[in-house]
Design a protein that fits this description.
118 residues; alpha+beta; 13% strand
Length: 118
């Protein structure tokens, strides 16, 4: 799935810097052009990858949640983010995805209502 997501990003004229995750979530560090609309990119990533999972590999249980989180990253932070993405399994032995995501939101100063996150 991760390699396929990278191919989708390339077909959108984006740059897949790093893609990884675990069975229940995925992280993508992608370079987008100024003309890209993030909501359209995410919608297309979900639609194309779901169709592939269902039709090509027969994984009917593969579904995306309705929402997503997106954060901008400065060029000086890209290496750290790539390293973070490549170590997801190890990372989540210490902290759950949910715990980590809430920390991302807090650190980013993003207001949220947890009723709408999961």
């Amino acid at each position: 799935m991760h390699a396929y997501l990278g191919g989708i990003v390339k077909n959108m004229n984006g740059i897949p810097e790093a893609i990884g995750g675990t069975a229940d979530h995925v992280h993508l560090l992608i370079g987008l052009r100024a003309t890209h609309c993030l909501a359209d990119v995410v919608r297309d990533l979900k639609a194309v990858s779901s169709r592939w999972a269902h039709e090509e590999i027969g994984e009917r249980s593969a579904v995306w949640q309705d929402g997503y989180g997106a954060f901008t990253v400065g060029a000086s932070e890209c290496r750290d983010v790539c390293d973070y993405i490549s170590c997801q399994e190890e990372h989540h032995r210490k902290r759950t995805f949910q715990e980590e995501y809430l920390e991302f939101l807090r650190c980013g100063g993003v207001e949220y209502d947890e009723r709408y996150l999961w």
